[in-house]
Amino acid sequence: MIIYDANNQILGRLSAVIAKKLLEGEKVFVVNSEKAVLVGNPKSKKELYLKKYKMGDVFKGPFFPKRPDAIFRRTVRGMLPWDRTRGRNAYRNLKVFIGLPDEFKNKKTEKTKEADASKLNSKYTTLGEISVFIGVKKVW
Q1: Of the ranges 11-20, 32-41, 54-63, which one carries the lowest mean pLDDT score?
Q2: Which of 34, 57, 111, 117 is spaced 20 to 30 A from 104 at the CA atom?
Q3: How far is CA 48 from CA 32, 43, 81, 100, 135, in A?
Q4: pLDDT of residue 56
Q5: One-character DSSP codes across 98-121
Q6: CATH fold of 2-134
Q7: pLDDT tier at 108 (50, 70, 90 boundaries)?
Q8: Residue spans per domain, the chain
């Protein structure tokens, strides 16, 4: 069981590390998913995710989530072999939370060096800001 803290971590890089751990058979928990960072122009990132959300038919899909924890899960799902049984079974071992639940308060969380966004020189936005822009009510 590995607990990752997504606070100030780059979304894509952290998702790639998590996908590898899931394929190795680990159970992975992610806390503070709303604080994950997307690097790039914030305005264009928000428009991109709004376009993804509005794409498709209301009844037939494709469906894209609004909440930051669901967007995080969807990002990791895109890095797994979803069309194979192995990828679907690995995806079941992923749990993503908004904030820090009480059951993980005293447990040690990990951060990855590859995904650290503390020394970024470019513009960035958080997953929580994107979710609010799409239309979710802020509850964190």
Answers
A1: 54-63
A2: 117
A3: 22, 9, 24, 28, 14
A4: 87
A5: SS--GGGTTS--B--STTB-TT--
A6: Ribosomal Protein L13p; Chain: A; (3.90.1180)
A7: very high
A8: 2-134
Tokens 């470019």 belong to residue = 122
Residues sharing a CB contact under 8 Å with residue 123, sequence separation 6 or more, in sequence order: 39, 40, 41, 42
Q: Give the span between the Cα atoms of 26 and 39, in whole angstroms.
A: 28
Percent of the chain with pLDDT over 90: 90
Sign of the torsion formed by the C-alpha atoms of 95, 78, 20 and 25: positive
Residue 118 · residue 48 · CB < 8 Å: no
Q: Which residues contact 86 (CB under 8 A, 6 or more apart)?
A: 23
Q: How confident is the model over 109-130, as pLDDT tens digits?
A: 999 999 999 888 999 999 999 9
